[in-house]
Amino acid sequence: MPEIPLVPAHWHFPAHPASVRRARHAVTESLPHILRPHLGDDLGLLTSELVTNAIRHGTCRVDEDLIELVLWPADGHYWLAVSDPGTGKPVLTHPDANAENGRGLLLVDNLATTWTVRARPTRGTSVIAGLSLRQNT
User: Which CATH architecture has domain 9-132?
Assistant: First the structure.
């Protein structure tokens, strides 16, 4: 008989800066206690960066727009998908030393084992990042 997978954790937050902290807390608190010392900080930082980007670039910054998060374990990783209603595709850039922003995806690129951007079937964009369980346990 096949192993029954865990049900993914799923949240919606308003497109408001206060949601960044709430999302980070929700995601890290949903990790099993045994994994928090290994994944909690990196997963919290990934969540903060991706939710901040979604609010800044993927919404109209009104509380009617929602940011969706899904967290699930699979294939030796914990996967985080952050989705927004926007149609733009985030692009990894290398800002110069004087730039005041533009480093969020660099951080994601360095923290995550792998990550990608996908258009959603109906409306919006998802950024999906995976953290390896093997490297962190």
Answer: 2-Layer Sandwich (3.30)
Q: At residue 49, what is the residue type?
A: E
> What is the number of other CB atoms lying within 10 angstroms of the CB of residue 49?
22
pTM: 0.88
Query: What is the residue-level pLDDT of the chain in tens, covering all 137 positions?
Result: 666 667 799 999 999 999 999 999 999 999 999 999 999 999 999 999 999 999 988 887 665 789 999 999 999 999 999 999 998 887 777 767 766 666 788 889 999 999 999 998 888 999 999 999 976 54
Burial of 33 (0-12, 13-18, 19+ CB in 10 A): exposed
Q: Hey, where are the domains in the chain? A: 9-132
